[in-house]
Amino acid sequence: MLDNxxxxxxxxxxxxxxxxxxxxxxxxxxxxxxxRAGLAFGESVGQPIDSKPVKTDKEMETDMxxxxxxxxxxxxxxERILTDSRMFLCPVPIQCGMSISGFEDPTxxxxxxxxxxxxxxxxTDKKGRRSLLYKLSGSSFSGHNSCGEVYExxxxxxxxxxxxxxxxxxxxxxxxxxxxxxxxxxxxxLQQVLDILDHEEEGxxxxxxxxxxxxxxxxxxxxxxxxxxxxxxxxxxAHRYEELEKALFDERVLHFYDRYKDMERxxxxxxxxxHQQKHDLEMALRRGDSSNQDYQRQxxxxxxxxxxxxxxxxxxxDEEILKAFPEQALPFWRIESYAQKLREK
Length: 345
Prior knowledge:
The protein is of the alpha+beta class. The protein has helices at 4-15, 57-69, 71-76, 78-81, 85-88, 108-117, 164-177, 179-184, 190-200, 204-287, 292-324, 332-344, and strands at residues 22-24, 30-32, 97-98, 122-124, 130-135, 137-138, 147-151, 156-159.
């Protein structure tokens, strides 16, 4: 699944293939835009903002309250807004308080697509109350934040988001996608958008159905992200488990092989000593220092000890392999070859 950064990059590349006056949404739809051409600003329905009028603080506060109060109404009319560039480029006077740039001059389409795409931007609490995030305020470095959510009845509440930067990052990516479009093309005011939508409104039934649909769609998207994340984490855990299992197996191989080599050195030293004794007895017999009867008796004892040493070494291979690797019937030569490769690393 593509992350927001990949989507933005992909759409920026797509936008380069279209002539001036076109814009590509995150879902791939191409929408006509209307370049600013010095038209007079009007407040009548359908008359777009053709330049950026300077607004007073009071006007900004009025627009901010207007957006927050109608957030769910705008979400319910998402499809209509996204068909008209003048509507989705409508400025939203909410400046998020962040320690980095990328949150400047958000518009209707930024919020609408962010609500849809950002996990947790649409919220449902334990009481079943639904809300939308409308303000991001905090530090991208420390993660401390105090953000805002608005409920369907228009009431708001401060909320702390974790992990905070995930929300901010997704907002920046979407906002930056339309950075040039916001500067070049016409846009309606919030009041104009409301007037248009009020004129076209289907009624409460259509509104309620659309909101339910949007929330359910977001919940499904969120679950898909969670499932995707869980799959990735499971794969990572499985890989780590395999690595740990291999490390433990390697340790068992080396432990077994080192024990075997220690016994082998001890047995070979013992057998070398016994062979030397056998040689000394043969020389004594030739010199006449020992009788044939004494020679045969002592030789038999030495031969018996050599056979016991050989059986002890062979037995260690068979018995200790089963103890060390009960789940696998590994031949000794494979263990020896693998251990030697490990030692060479």
